[in-house]
Hints:
This protein is α+β, with helices and mostly antiparallel strands. The chain has one domain: START domain (Alpha-D-Glucose-1,6-Bisphosphate, Chain A, domain 4, 2-Layer Sandwich), CATH 3.30.530.20. Helix content is 20%, strand content 40%. The protein has helices spanning 37-44, 71-78, 84-87, 179-187, 189-201; strands at 7-8, 49-55, 58-67, 91-100, 103-112, 115-125, 131-136, 144-157, 162-173. Strands 1, 2, 3, 4, 5, 6, 7, 8 and 9 form a nine-stranded mixed β-sheet that branches. Strand 6 (115-125) and strand 7 (131-136) form a beta hairpin. Helix 2 (71-78) crosses helix 5. The radius of gyration is 17 Å and the shape is globular.
Amino acid sequence: MLFSVALALAADATSPHPHQGVVTPYRGAPPAVTLTAADQATVASGKVVLKQQQVESGGRGVAIMDIAAPPEKIWAKILDYGQYAKMVDKVAECGNYKVAGDHLYTRFVLRVMGVDVEYFIDHRYTPGSNYLTWTLDYSRKSDLDDSVGYWRVTPQAATPPRSRLEYSVDIRFTGYVPGFVADMISKKGLTDATSWVKRESEGGS
């Protein structure tokens, strides 16, 4: 019989996080990202464009890509947290543990080379809006020191359907996360972190 045992770190759903945020969160809609004519041509061709976005705490990377699907199909994939373990590389477990108004509280477990990194995210999404933002859920202790980011989906064409996806994340690691694990998560990069959305949204189901 084959089995594997993952090393658990220090996450604890029964204890508060050591702080209430060290990364500046988004308040309302994320700032607009300006694309040049060359950028527009690149995303229209199906490739990813990486840009810098200025926020209070400095610059953050943003991945922008066009997807051959309507916004509602893309949102259905992004919000389907219970299926992330099947859709997203390195996600071993995922699911909502609470929904309160426009807040979706989600537990993630990343499994990287035998190490489980567990963290709790407070997503804020209003159905019908074109963006979702998140921070850690600071009422629970995560293995990540902090995580702030957003998804944005805007329609580009109706026939055939085409939408523009934006994704940004700022992750800070605790000392509990081994350096090689933090490096592997970081090197996954914005492009890899969004490729699954394109694959799943452009698929038949």
